[in-house]
Request: fold
Amino acid sequence: MASDTDALQFMQRSESAATKRMRTAVALGSNVGDRLENLRAARKTISDLPNVNAPIFSSAVYETEPVGCEANAGKFLNSVVEFEYASDPAQLLEQLIQIEETLGRKRHHPRNVSRIIDVDLLYCGERRMNDERLQLPHPRLHLREFVLRPLADIRPELLLPSQKRTIRQLLAEVEQSGGVVRYADTW
Reply:
């Protein structure tokens, strides 16, 4: 028969595991090569990570004008994938960087240039982080139509930490240039 101490330790471990589970989202982008296949490969690899669990939701794919890229950069395909995640966000960030590398992106790539794949960690539940490697929620998420529009497909009423407006409200406030066009509903 288990002692009260054993039962208490089991409950603490269970509560700890449960509190680590959080809805987490990443933004995917690609403007080099087979852009749609690059997004598919990234989504598949993310869904196969050990601490990623169902349900997994994917937004539609949007074609967008490049923002801050080199002259003559091609259009991006962008989407958002949200999933249940049960571990440390810093560990997930490292795994996402490895996915980018596996798909052909250089680890120390220049900022804001064309890329085969870009995977940005947007949020991990209610977690707030601000260090040199990771900022949660993503510090520019609320300013980017190419992230807000796909995120609104799957979580329009989401209220992120440090925000007073939902994703739908933030999207309505972002200057919409017409440069974000629905490209594919299913992928």
Observations:
- Helices lie at 4-20, 35-47, 89-102, 145-154, 167-173.
